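ok here's the first one, seq then struct tokens
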Amino acid sequence: MSGRPRLARVVGLTAGLAMAAGSLVVVPASGAANAALAAYYNQKVEWAACEAGTPPPGFPPDEWEKEWAGLDCATIVVPMNYQKPGDGNLSVAISRRKAADPAHRQGVLLLNPGGPGGDGLAMPNWMKDEKIAGPFDLIGFDPRGTGRSTSLQCELPPTEPLFETRPTDQQFAQIEADAKAQEEGCAAADGGIRKYISTANTARDMDIIRGVLAEKKINFFGYSYGTYLGAVYGSLFPGRLNRSVLDSSMHPDWLYYEQAKEVSMSARENFDALAEWMAQRDSIYHFGKTLAEVTAYLNEVRAKVAAHPVDWPLPGGGSPVDGPFFDIILGGSGYRPMWDLAAELIGLIRDAANAPAGKRALSKDASKALKVLYGKIKETYQGVFQAVSCEAVWSKDPKGYEEQMRLFREKYPYGPGAMQAGPTNCTYAKWKPQEKLVDLKRKGYPVGLVIGAEFDPATQYDGSPAMAAKLDNQLISVSDEGSHGQYGSNPCATAKINDYLIKGVLPGSRSVCAGAPRPDVPADGTAAAKTAKPAGGSLAARAAAIEALKGPLNR
């Protein structure tokens, strides 16, 4: 997402032609003779050019204006409680980028970026240069509780929560207290709507969107958590879904604690792959000749920056590189084309950590590169992630979380490390979800696609074949790939998805695409290694070039 806000730390978290719009009388799906809901389905949409509004902190105003150029926006009304529509209404903001090739229009394609809690109002413009923008009206929306829809907020905890990738036993109590305080802040500010912020209700909102757009069916494209949302929609409204693409899928049985832990487990896999690659090039990077040597060396560096953090001399550049931030860098460098730059930056952090007191700082060039690849802006605090995550059952036993944190600080300390195995606000939630989780199934809508990357850092690969099996969908696997979200980034997967969405052509029950290439840095012992030299040039410029290679979900 060029210029889009990115987080350095993971919190907590994816056929016949559709009919063209016409004069339809749209009634609720699933055999609903519910007159109370019919009014929502038949409300009129008043489109107007989207207003950019105030850009988020750190977002250049001119780039923010481009995010909204060419988009129309509208606001619709949905029931707060679908079981009792008379209890009150919520607003849902929707957007539209009309099909660039209206003569060959195939209906609408609803988009969701994931989360839970990701707002997708600007998402149609992320896809404006892709082939799907030709035959489809691209529809974005801010799910209930997010963005420009009725907002769900949490009060900030009274103290800054502890973030420690390798917490000590003594710090467990603080982590537990922080999770409890977060729940108390969310409970205090829920405004009576939190228990209605759920995946099933968001799926029902999607069907209201379909209705007000006068479409008999929608097509759907979801990333990450959006894959689960798409699966829930298809399960609730099978007759209303045409083609579906679930990119970087969640596991249907890992809701949500197991899914959280998989983030750190994937970070360990990516760290090992990177460390092994660096070990094969010790003559260039000087971290060790084996995976074990590199791991031990970097753990020593981690101990040094934990004791004496390394500064970066950029105004507002970010927190100093301390132990947890170093773990984020080590576990967050899964994207293969960035490995050479990541190795150089890690080496510069090592050099700064070994420098005398007063000289432990990175150069401005290195700092700029660090900010591009791993920097973060100030986070807003909406409570949708904290609400939706609680729709599944969480253990109330603190001892179980402590046992898992001990395991993770030793075995999976990279990326967010043991924080992903700790308790969350859901551990202390006293409210209960309105309904059980939806039983996922594909019965009554066409075969769809599930896409998974072998080293996905956010939704571990095993989730994709599991979701494909659950829905009896086709699976596209991307080998040796450490990024999250393949459409628009991986040419092979993108071409297969385009063929499916535009032409209805299925790629095959199982297919494999190669991931983005590793850097062209010769390994030790090869003839090319004798004359190999570091890439040189501006680190910041190289970081920007790497970001430009990534797909719309990762930029």
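and now the second one, same deal
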Amino acid sequence: MATHESVNTGGARPQEQGTGTPKEMKRELTRYASFAMAFGFVSIATGIFTTYGSVLNSSGPRGIFAWPIAVVGQLSIALVFGALAARIPISGYAYQWVSRLVNPVWGWIMGWISFSFLGVVVVAVDYTIASTILPELLQYQGTQENAWAITAVVILAQAVLVAMSTQLTHSVNKTAVTIQLVGMITLTVLLFGVGAATGKLDFSTLFETAPVADSGYYSLGSAAEVGPFAMAFLLGAFTIVGFESAANLAEETRDPARVIPKAMVQAVLSLGVLGFLFLIAITALIENPAELAASSTPVATVITAVLGSGVGKALLVLVVVSIFSCGLVITMSGTRLVWAMSRDERFPGWRALRKIHPGRGTPLNATLFIFLVAQVVLASFAMSTDALFSLFSAATLLPAIIYAGTVLMYIVKRKSLPPTQGFSLGRWEIPVIVVASVWLVYELLIFRDASFRDPWMYVLVLFAIGGVYFAFLLARRGVSGLTMPDMADVDRALDADGPQAAAVPAQQAALPAPGEVSDR
């Protein structure tokens, strides 16, 4: 194995040897840009439009009450991630944290699971535009074929933007997030207002279970079957994920140890409250839950019926913008993870994928790779009769595995973590850990249901591919050859351009190298 070169501790950024190609990216993201990353990835418009129909079919209107419970669970995870991001603010989030606090072997496994998640979730998000929004907006009959073609074009557009310019991508995302905030608030207010004025708003609908039977509604189910209410948790579990994308761009964020934890928590809280209000509005306006459950575009159908064709379609355009922004953030997050693992020489094709384009300052090859992976995933799922359910289920299962692994690592290593640089759980640490643990165990148990066979197949295939490559790495390098760049050197390099550069070096020198821990 070629040894990792020492990270430059001065102001100049490391270069690819003999090429003049930079290996690091500019630290240019502001507080709002970091929040926009977390908010844009989560995107309640995307999650609710994608999963609401499935929840109606599995749990009925009453299923929306699983949402606030899921938000509390995901918030506890965001708090744990914030505590880690404040200690190890490096691109790659869970991959970096586990690699450095446990060992590089488990870190690699976590990185591959994260890559598998990002490869499928971008398809799930973009498929929503083609399958649940555009048919209602443009009044055409959606088919598997045209959904595939439209999704492929959307994925291409997002990859081109990410490859062209980081600043342009963030400008588009910040604009889209602002539009989503204004649009979703406006849409929710209009639904409540017009619904009340026309007498269509009926809050008793919130407690109905049709088309699901009321008996056994809260049942825990059997070994291969989940109860109706438990299935409703997928709505929040699928939607409130991706807040950690802010941590994945730590090396491009100013003062990341302070900014990123707050961005993740603020995104979960704001989206949780706004999302629940929107769900209440939509659900209270349903005239016939059993009939709406049969619709392929239930949310869009309700909006158009209540607000009229003109206003409804204008707001659906805003939803399309929000969903496109979500896919854009996911694409960027995926490229950063692939780039981070390739920089550490631990990803297939790392020599090409770790390069930063000298003119654009973007990981161009990594972006192209993520684009190709997304197209393969799309082709694998697109002709399924239940493609959207399979996609969002896989995109819910994988982050649950990532979150569970990271929280477990935090529990084991919390007494020996590096010193925090801006965020700490303090006396709330134990309650947060308990809530996160209970929530994750419950969420993972939902996936025992037989309806999740396709998502499990996707996970197993991706794990098998990763296992083959990992076996190759071990055979070629051995466990000792998978070590990470020295923690102290990396942090000094990352902070060289930061606002607190003068105050940080003494503290950073005490941070542990990979596999070591601090007794602070």
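notes on #2: The chain is about 65% helix and 0% strand. The first helix runs from residue 31 to 42.
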